[in-house]
Structures are given as C-alpha cells and as structure tokens.
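Let's sit down with a protein and look at its sequence and fold side by side. Once you have written the record down, we can walk along the chain together.
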Amino acid sequence: MKVILQKDVKGLGKKGEVVNASDGHARNYLIPRGLAKKASEGNIHNLKQKKKAKKRRRERELEEAKEKAESLEGEMFTFKVKAGENGRLFGSVTTNDIADKIEQETGQKIDKRKIDLNDNIRTLGTKKVSIKLHKNVTANVKVKVTEA
C-alpha cells in the first residue's frame, strides 16, 4: 500500500515521502498512530502543493536576505561610550547593542543571535562584524567605538 509519511519513521522514510508499506503495517500501525496517511490522488496533490509553497517561501526569504545584506554591506555604526585608561571600556558593546543601533539607523530589525561576535567589544577602535542573515548570505559591517 502506498502511504504519505506524516512524520519520520525509522527504517521506512522521512516526513513528506511517498513510500510503499505492507498493507497490514500501514493499516494497523502507521495510519492509526498518525505516522502516515493513504496516498490517494488528492493527498498526493496536496503534498505537491505544500512542497511548492515551501520552495517559494524559501526563495522569497533568500531574496529578502540578499536585499538586506546589500543595504547593510560596508555600513559603519558608531558607539560613544565611557572609557578608562588604555582605551578599556567601562562595560562593553554587545550584540544586543549592535542590533538596536542597526534598527535605529536603518530601520531594519536584526536578531542579535545572527550577529557573529566572538566576544563583546571591550576596547576603543573599529571592528569588523559579520551578520548571518540567511544560511548562504552574510553582511559585513563596521562597528566604531569612540570615547564619549
């Protein structure tokens, strides 16, 4: 019997695949537990439509990320903070601060977890920071820290 898997089933296949299962296994185990549904024409058509919609959504997200990266690439964001001797800051500039500054100046909301910063900035100067907007798209910005 052909079935469409609703969840990953070990030894049979992954979610969304159309697989052949024995009649008894499908009727007595897979379908009652919601792991699969019968592969009728209507169900297969719905599965194809969902896959197309998912693909379009991924393409749209990639395009939006590319546009965002293009607008952010090479931008400089300046922070004025109090510093002590030898250019050491009282506190630090964090990914949250950088995300807030980007939203203030450009109006683009960036998730602080997507900002690649090994450690918080604790000294004066300019530092390159990369922002991972998508799996394949990153933007590089400069963060300049000056004394207030």
In short: The longest strand covers residues 137-147.
